[in-house]
Amino acid sequence: MSNVAVIIPCYNVEGYIFECLDSVKKQGDIVSEIYCVDNNSTDDTL
Questions:
Q1: Cα 3-17-31 angle, rounded to 5 deg
Q2: Is 1 exposed, middle or buried, given 0-12, 13-18 or 19+ CB atoms closer than 10 A?
Q3: Amino acid 46: pLDDT
Q4: Each residue's pLDDT tens digit, 14-45
Q5: By CB atoms within 10 Å of each CB, which of 10, 17, 19, 20 scores lowest?
Q6: What is the mean pLDDT of residues 4-16?
Q7: 25 exposed, middle or buried (CB, 10 Å; 0-12, 13-18, 19+)?
Q8: Per the structure, how many domains does the chain have?
Q9: Structural contact between residues 41 and 16, judged by C-beta atoms closer than 8 angstroms
Q10: Torsion angle, CA of 29/13/40/32, rounded to 10 degrees?
Q11: pTM surpassing 0.85?
């Protein structure tokens, strides 16, 4: 089985980030790492 790292760029997505992370987690065991990269958001994204 392959291991996949997912990189999620984030900027002012407080209302959507948890939905996005849940979607990635539902992909199953193929995803081994999830990185969220915040670009100095002004909301509470991360």
A1: 10
A2: exposed
A3: 81
A4: 999 999 999 999 988 889 999 999 989 999 88
A5: 19
A6: 94
A7: exposed
A8: 1
A9: no
A10: 0
A11: no
Does 45 reside within a domain? no
Pairwise CA distance, residues 41 & 12, whole Å:
5
> C-alpha angle with apex 41: 34 to 8, nearest 5 degrees?
20
Asked if residue 23 is part of any domain, the answer here is yes
Sequence-separated (6 or more) residues with CB below 8 Å from residue 15: none
Asked whether residue 46 is domain-assigned, the answer is: no
Is 17 within the bounds of a domain?
yes
DSSP state of 22: H
